[in-house]
Amino acid sequence: MRTYLITGGSGFIGANFIKYMLRIYHDINIVVLDKLTYAGNLGTIREELKDSRVTFIKGDICNRELVENIFANHDIDYVVNFAAESHVDRSIEDPGIFLKTNILGTQILMDTAKKHWSIGRDEKGYPTYKEGKKFLQVSTDEVYGSLKRDIPEGRELSIEGEEMKDLLQGREVIPKTFGEKLFTEETPLDPRSPYAVSKASADMLVRSYGETYRFPINITRCSNNYGPYQFPEKLIPLIIKNILEGEKLPVYGDGRQVRDWLYVEDHCRGIDLALKKGRLGEIYNIGGFNEEQNINIVKLTIDIIRKLIIENGQLKDEYRGVIRCTPETISYDLINHVQDRLGHDARYAIDPAKTVGELGFYPETPFTEGIERTIRWYLENQDWMKEVVTGDYKEYYDKIY
Ligand code: NAD
Hints:
There is one protein chain. This protein is α/β, with parallel strands linked by helices and 401 residues long. It has one domain (2-390): 3-Layer(aba) Sandwich (Rossmann fold), CATH 3.40.50.720. The chain contains 13 helices and 18 strands. It has helices spanning 12-24, 64-73, 88-93, 96-117, 162-168, 194-212, 235-245, 264-277, 294-309, 353-359, 367-380, 382-390, 392-400; strands spanning 2-7, 28-34, 54-58, 78-81, 118-121, 127-129, 134-140, 155-156, 176-177, 217-222, 224-226, 249-252, 258-263, 283-286, 291-293, 310-311, 314-315, 335-338. β5 and β6 (127-129) form a beta hairpin. α1 (12-24) crosses α8 and α2 (64-73) packs parallel to α4 (96-117). It starts with a strand and ends with a helix. Bound molecules: nicotinamide-adenine-dinucleotide. Nicotinamide-adenine-dinucleotide binds at residues 7-8, 10-14, 33-37, 39-40, 60-62, 82-86, 101, 105, 138, 140, 199, 222, 224-225, 231. The site of nicotinamide-adenine-dinucleotide has 31 residues, from α1, β2, α4, β7 and β11. Its cofactor is NAD(+). It comes from Propionigenium maris DSM 9537. Keywords: Lyase, NAD. Its EC number is 4.2.1.46.
């Protein structure tokens, strides 16, 4: 019976991870620690909270006393640290909270785990730890900075390495790239936004605990996630929400920024693989083989929504009175190019060769399938969307705790 401390488990990826883990393992316990910021929504894990294997604690990873109590009361085997301020635009407005949560919070979690997991010292003076413990830091490809977009229209990605070739055989997806270079785990860190700096700093701190104290760590660095339960300030859910409300779709600059997109459940599987098979001290890039320009993501989302909700030029019956858009408004005319984000990175692209080779990871969800599944989810879960944007989830929390 393994016990996971999942921080940030009411947020987008953390909540998906909890759902994934409870579904595939029976013999686990999960302790969720979440501050329930605007991005955390208890409604997202409403069903999971009824599961006897799950304990929820509202609180801040920066609260040393609280974290100490959690370790004192639960025999934690794995810490999976999702808790973070995660939105680049907010970090440009107010960097302070990003540095506090993302760096100092990570330090407090590690200090406490180190204390509770230590069992002595080896002959060289390094701490030794109880068997099977691990701290996994969930990080991002944004720590590597920005890559050149030197293939403007993109081309098929040629993948090096035998394992990669084997894994790709028979796949329908043809990975696409917009540049010659990809981020590997060896790429020097070059973060450009306050958010990315806070994540890179945390990564360096985690690495330093691995080196200095032989603390059992892994770091995973993932590309842009998309899927159910993502707060509608990030590109895909924001675009879906605005289309359904008949609102303009803000696109930064020319919209040609390139991101690598990964379906959230594939990320969850990658994290689980890193927990089980990752060599201690190692960093693993988790990517989707799926680079795309923001503007194309926006157009594709418009196309899919049109396909899903319009029939014979009319809104399908089930959407009448539920959403505000009309067949006429759902068009590329909604796209509104706004002033570009300050210091906007041109391109992120991950080379996941190490993760594929060592952990057997492969992004199983083709983008066309994942994006349609995501849009269907938002169409069917309009209430969730309203709840997170109006703050009703806070009342929900007060009611049940
Ligand atoms: P999110 O913003 O949806 O969720 C963050 C969660 O952390 C929320 O539930 C929030 O309440 C909680 N939280 C914030 N500050 C806290 C604190 N001080 N103490 C306790 N809980 C706190 O973020 P997400 O998109 O789910 O991202 C999760 C992690 O994955 C982050 O570390 C992020 O950097 C990383 N990541 C995200 C992406 C992506 O595309 N979303 C890609 C790569 C890596």
